[in-house]
Model the fold of this input.
Amino acid sequence: MVGLTVSHRAGCPAANPFFIVNITVEDVSPTRKTLVVNVPVEEIAVEEQSVLGEFAQSVRLPGFRPGKAPADLVRRRYAREIGEELQRKVTSSAYEYAVKESKLEIFAAVGVDGEPVVLGFPALLKITVDVQPQFTTPEYKGLPVIVPAKDVTDADVEAAITDLRSQRADYAVVERPAAAGDFVRLNYTGTIDGKPIAEIAPERAIYGTQHGTWEEAGSANAPGVRAVVDGIIGLKAGDKKDVAHTFPADLDVPALAGKSASYAIEVLEVREKRPAALDDAFLKGLQVENVEQLRERVKDDLKGRKEQDSLAASREQVVKALTGAVDFPLPESAIESETQNLLRDFMERQMRAGATEEDFEKRKDELFKSAREAAHNRVKLLLILLKIAEQEKVAVNNDDLHQRIMQEAMMTRQRPEQIVKRLQEDRGLLSSLQRAILHAKTLDFVVAQAKVTVAPAA
Done:
């Protein structure tokens, strides 16, 4: 514990709002401190007189001109409002002065506790803050990164064109048995020891009963039951078949994990995927005049994609190198705030995709743990980047703000003027945007300094 006692005399040019204040700094953790501030009764009286004078000048009381009402009458009539303002002013002044005198590098104010500020009594305020962690900046110039080759081959172009044709494929009904790659509409019902899986695990309908569902026969990426996906190969419309399936021991549905099940399959329809022909209609749909023009466009698109892949690989490796090179305690308030931000963003995305609050409730412990781990890594990276920005004098200018606002406007389909107005009204939002830009610029700076090696082609 470190105790600081400081005395000031009224009228001192550099004096704080109080005459005599005793400050004690208590360690809560390496990054959290409590500033215990004792404000004497005399100082409360001085501050109360100041607040009372402000009220007397601004309020209107019957029979009195503004500023002429007796102080005692104003104090009685506006006792609650004056008390609230006195609390706010004393707390604010105590915080500012305590931070200055303790010489702490504040990361964030966490909270204020203590006795109410009341005229005629001294005040004891406990102000909890998180401080900037102290650490040595890791080496950030010349970090080694390995990126994929950016060259685009003829085979790459042809594969991309084949994918385009596949995306625009027709699905023709066929009478033959299903082959791997065909799309099959079917019904199936799963049971374990004669009991329907729909009753055992009603929350996972895909493992229970499905009517008229589509599956790609033999697909390795199908989300459904493996035995069903493989079992429909060789079946045609109207065929029925029973297949056995054993669930993995690590399945995320405990009631089914490691269990052996039986599935009754009925095929309703078989469709063959027929890629679009490379004809005039196909080319017109892609707004190109001929196949050669299509190849040139595809090649340019692939080049841009590979550039982005290379940059993403560089960023990922730089981030891993920076965060892995140094360890230090992180401000708990930052971890808590970032955890909540990540959880909120995840839940909003999932709810847009159809998830319910019940889904989140079932996984809340898992989601919180995952979000907190991600928050820890993100906060650590941002603190390192802030220190690098300070050392390299990376700054955010008006051009950076303008560019980010235009990007935001395009992504959210808003007018730039709307975003600017919101930033002008909310200084906290503006500060957050500036920090985000600073982090991005600093990371770009470090990536640009990296020592790049191109991985050999596979």
